[in-house]
């Protein structure tokens, strides 16, 4: 399965981008959503996922010129809700242990079912960069005898935006 969504780059942080939905035939099971991985670790900082609802939010401003597409992997897990056990997402912890040490971890044999979904976030370019002149200041000279319509000076401007947002219109 795959979700694909378009998000303008000027979208503020904490904006809902997408609601990932999953169903479980066993109604007593609780679903937990986790932002598992990305093709680029940079993308994991740009988004956050509500583990209870599956809503994906922007965590930071997006920038089309830096990265125009983010590919994320979301895991949805289902676990039987026993009164004494919580269904939690895995986090990575560093625990310094004196050597030699033995660390035992048990999962209490709770049946956990999971599925993965790919989420593609396309960052749409907005006109967020101002054009600039590449050779400023410009100085032009014209002879008194120059014909009307003669070229006096040629200027050049650039814009970091792409496509239509990078088109430059000159006027005096």
From TrEMBL:
SUPFAM superfamilies: Cadherin-like. One of its GO terms (biological process) is anatomical structure morphogenesis. One of its GO terms (molecular function) is calcium ion binding. PROSITE patterns: CADHERIN_1, CADHERIN_2. It comes from the Eukaryota. One of its GO terms (cellular component) is membrane. Residues 3-133, 134-172 form the Cadherin domain. Pfam families: Cadherin. Keywords: Calcium, Membrane, Repeat, Transmembrane, Transmembrane helix. InterPro entries: Cadherin-like_dom, Cadherin-like_sf, Cadherin_CS. Coiled coil: none annotated. It is found in: Membrane. PANTHER family: FAT ATYPICAL CADHERIN-RELATED, PROTOCADHERIN FAT 1. This is Cadherin domain-containing protein. The lineage of its organism: Eukaryota, Metazoa, Chordata, Craniata, Vertebrata.
């Amino acid at each position: 399965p795959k979700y694909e969504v378009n998000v303008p780059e000027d979208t503020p942080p904490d904006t809902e981008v997408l609601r990932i939905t999953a169903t479980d035939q066993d109604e007593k099971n609780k679903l937990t959503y986790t932002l598992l991985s990305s093709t680029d670790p940079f993308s994991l900082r740009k988004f956050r996922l509500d583990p209870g609802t599956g809503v994906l939010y922007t965590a930071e401003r997006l920038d089309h010129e830096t990265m125009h597409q983010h590919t994320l992997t979301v895991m949805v897990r289902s676990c039987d809700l026993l009164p004494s056990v919580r269904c939690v997402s895995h986090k990575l912890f560093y625990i310094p242990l004196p050597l030699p040490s033995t660390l035992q971890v048990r999962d209490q044999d709770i049946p956990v079912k999971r599925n993965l979904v790919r989420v593609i976030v396309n960052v749409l370019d907005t006109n967020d960069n101002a054009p600039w002149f590449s050779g400023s200041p410009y100085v032009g000279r014209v002879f008194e005898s120059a014909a009307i319509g003669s070229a006096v000076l040629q200027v050049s401007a650039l814009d970091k935006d792409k496509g239509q947002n990078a088109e430059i219109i000159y006027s005096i």
